[in-house]
UniProtKB/TrEMBL annotation:
The protein, known as: Lysine--tRNA ligase
Family according to the record: Belongs to the class-II aminoacyl-tRNA synthetase family.
EC number(s) per entry: 6.1.1.6
One Gene Ontology MF term: lysine-tRNA ligase activity
Entries under SUPFAM superfamilies matching the protein: Class II aaRS and biotin synthetases, Nucleic acid-binding proteins
Keyword Disulfide bond tagged: no
Cofactor note: Binds 3 Mg(2+) ions per subunit.
Catalytic activity: tRNA(Lys) + L-lysine + ATP = L-lysyl-tRNA(Lys) + AMP + diphosphate
Length: 508
């Protein structure tokens, strides 16, 4: 049996067929090993001839007319994704990593009978093959290599999935390597993410920010309200935490004089996973000395709009389902308390009694556990119930309750709230920004209040961080700070779910 069936005809669900094909391919591998001299190194050579890439040839000869010859000899390599053997002439489509393809034409006249027969018997779909020959355009106008020499670069022991049927989301996530081979969107998402990260760094460079790296293993978790992953260091004989945020270390950098600092790296939160949350995710945090939450909001809008342009060429992006979404213009800024009051049909302020908020929550079916039912927690949960779903355009939601924001400066004119915003795009929270709390005395008081919540059973409450407080006591300038999930930024630009924007997401 030879395996030159077009990938479209392979049923990936047929375990018996896969088992049979693997056995055939293993036999071919053994043959290549026994014929090492003729096979130029067996099924997995260290190197193969390669003078050009497939996309480079396609760009160079984009205007080649049907039937034309170039006189140019090139060696390229790619994965076989289509194969058709017709007597004295065999055709194969070779695909590069970016999805570009070129046709390989293996003819009796060019390679001889023995080589042609070896191609028919040894080359399968999924194999990596190097071919050398003249670059031509076929009679049908397809850019091709008229092969004079060929070599298997890597033997695939398992068949490709059906190239004309969508892999299920679960299959795409669990076998991303196959997803990248067979689906354009998967490759485009990887490229888009690279463009987003490059754009973010370029914008920060334009604003004279410095990129740093802070610890992922920490002796004390902090910088966000979240449950950490706990591990143990054998060398230090100590319990450590995977970081939930880089905030407290980046602020130390600001204290040390790095006035404009950012980091793009991984965070870990031991919480649920859904369409907008992943236990491991990429996070951007940035801090700008002598700025505030208004200045950092302006910067965040610029970062996102330039990232959209880098991917889509415009601030109007097209999502995977074809929907267009406008990220351009000046984004709205609304008050949390005012927007909640308007939507709920009653006035809610920082002075509203806890009992009144609990009564409203019960009335509309918003459940907040008693042990964490503070004024601020109820206000935020009620806001999500009444307002969040009606936001369509990108919107900064400003001025949060004091008791849920222990690292944020109190509002300069409104008692009981802090200078914090959350940015909502596509109905989910994309970023958050603060006028940072820099007074070490007040910060200690906030940490103590958080410790009391932790003692009452709040797993997300922060602990007193003495080292961070010591840094603040050396003087931190007025600062604006922000944090944004890179995976969620990709969601906003592509319209995909979070597991699609992460190359290799965590799965059970």
């Amino acid at each position: 049996m030879t395996d030159n069936t077009p990938a479209a005809e392979i049923d990936p669900a047929s375990e018996e067929d896969v088992f049979e094909q693997k056995a055939v391919r293993l036999a071919k591998r053994e043959r290549l090993l026994t014929e090492r001299v003729d096979a130029a190194g067996g099924p997995y050579p260290v190197a193969v001839p390669m003078t050009d890439t497939i996309p480079a040839l396609r760009a160079r000869f984009a205007e080649l007319a049907a039937g034309d010859e170039t006189g140019v000899t090139a060696s390229v390599a790619g994965r076989v994704v289509f194969s058709r053997n017709t007597g004295k002439l065999c055709f194969a489509s070779l695909q590069s990593g970016d999805g570009s393809r070129i046709q390989a034409m293996v003819s009796l006249a060019e390679v001889g009978e023995e080589s042609l027969q070896a191609w028919k018997e040894l080359v399968d779909l999924g194999d990596h093959v190097s071919v050398t020959g003249q670059v031509i355009s076929s009679r049908r106008g397809e850019l091709s290599i008229m092969v004079t020499r060929w070599q298997i670069a890597a033997k695939a022991l398992l068949p490709l999935p059906n190239l004309h049927s969508e892999l299920s989301e679960e299959s795409r996530v669990r076998s991303r390597f196959l997803d990248l081979i067979v689906r354009d969107q998967a490759r485009e998402t990887v490229l888009a993410r690279a463009k987003v990260n490059a754009s973010l760094r370029a914008t920060f460079t334009d604003h004279e920010f410095i990129e740093v790296e802070t610890p992922m293993l920490q002796v004390q978790h902090g910088g966000a309200a979240a449950r950490p992953f706990v591990t143990t260091s054998n060398a230090f004989d100590a319990e450590l935490y995977l970081r939930i945020a880089p905030e407290l270390f980046l602020k130390r950098a600001v204290v040390g004089g790095i006035d404009r600092v950012f980091e793009i790296n991984r965070n870990f939160r031991n919480e649920g996973a859904d369409s907008t949350h992943s236990p491991e995710f990429a996070m951007l945090e940035a801090y700008q000395a002598y700025s505030d939450y208004h200045g950092i909001a302006d910067l965040t809008q610029e970062l996102i709009q330039k990232a959209a342009i880098a991917v889509a060429g415009s601030t109007t992006v097209t999502w995977a389902d074809g929907t267009e979404y406008d990220l351009g213009g000046q984004w709205d800024r609304i008050s949390m308390y005012a927007s909640l009051s308007d939507a709920a049909g009653r006035t809610i302020t920082p002075e509203t009694a806890l009992a009144d908020l609990q009564a409203l929550a019960a009335e509309v079916g918003v459940e907040v556990p008693e042990k964490v039912a503070t004024h601020g927690k109820l206000v935020e949960e009620l806001w999500e119930h009444f307002v969040k779903g009606d936001l369509s355009r990108p919107t900064f939601v400003m001025d949060f309750p004091l008791d849920t924001s222990p690292l944020v400066r109190e509002h300069r004119t409104i008692p009981g709230v802090v200078e914090k915003w959350d940015l909502y795009v596509r109905g989910f929270e994309l970023a958050t920004g603060y006028s940072e709390l820099v007074d070490p005395v007040i910060q200690r008081e906030r940490f103590v209040e958080q410790a009391k919540l932790a003692a009452r059973g709040d797993d997300e409450a922060m602990r007193v961080d003495e080292e961070f407080l010591r840094a603040l006591e050396h003087g931190m300038p007025p600062t604006g700070g922000m944090g944004m999930g890179i995976d969620r930024l990709m969601m906003a630009i592509t319209g995909l779910g979070i597991r699609e924007t992460i190359l290799f997401p965590l799965v059970k």
